[in-house]
Fold this protein.
Amino acid sequence: MSVMTMTRGFCLAIAASACLASAPSALAETITVTDLAGRTVEVEKDPSAIVLGEGRMIYSLALLDRDNPFERVVGWKDDMILYDPDAWRKYEEKFPEAKDIQRLGSPYSDEWNLEAVISSGTEVVFMNLGNLLKAQESGIIDKLEAAGVATVFVDFRQDPTQNTVPSIQLLGRILDERDKADAFTDYYTAQMKRIYAAVDKIPVEDRPVVFIERAAGYNPNKCCGTFGSANLGRLVELAGGRNWGSQKFPGFGGNVSLEAVFADDPAVIIGTGANWAEANPETTAVLFGYEAAEDAVQERLAALAEREGWPELQAVKSGRFHSIYHQFYNSPYHFVAMQAFAKWLHPELFEDLEPEATMVELHERFLPIDYSGVFWASLNKGS
């Protein structure tokens, strides 16, 4: 071997070593976590490139990456853009670079661009616990693992009252924002506990039956979806009500006939709504969100109460006909919904509770966007 060849080889080795030394992965710290699916996962701490299996995970990410919730995000699903456009425009105005994030579709279907995920240098993909079975059946977890990309499941939908704190703490560990995670989960726990102690003292017979109409008016001629003893149904129970759907479904929820609702004539009715007008122009839902106005909310709420047969229900007659922002069902902010429920169900007991003040404080202390709009309402008796 010539001296020139040896020298060239030595120089190449030095160059390769230098490249490895400067590569981010060489310096990255790997941690072992247990996700909300109970899976043990090796994941890079403080990743710079993440993918969101659902765009509405921004609700959670914004609590931790407050300076810019989109800074790490290299790909996501466009459900937030489609189904919560008010929130999307609020964030896009402050973080215009967010519009350039790749829209990858659903990670559980053939539409998902796995090549784009890998080529973007993605270190971790966050997925929803409710889609664990779909992810397993599609094989996407194994495909990502083979490409060196971790998958981590969090949950703000299946069992939010139990899984919000561990999900935020898990995100805090991975994103290296544990102090912010601690601050929010302490606040979350304190807000939930404002209701627990008082509700424990309410006799069962004094807890009104509540029917939740899930996505009320989303499809104008379709009724009714509701929750079992989960998600918003569970919040009703924790807020001092008896959730009508819990008697009908052992699980998350499902569809019921309008005749069944009319026959039982529940004391309280709470619909859910959001700005779905862009995703479904025919919707008659209450368009709650950051751009909602009180007059428009009341107009939509009154129209729902005037559907055929509904004016005869005791909830409508007594003014116990309400509606709330649908997206609370999939965000760590659901304690605000629970406070609104408690106020509606037991107004005297919770006279001093102010859900709107809580919502304002949530934004001022923990979120990078300002509070605006309307997120819940009760039917005006004069409507």
In short: Residues 1-26 have pLDDT under 50 and may be disordered. The longest helix spans residues 178-200.
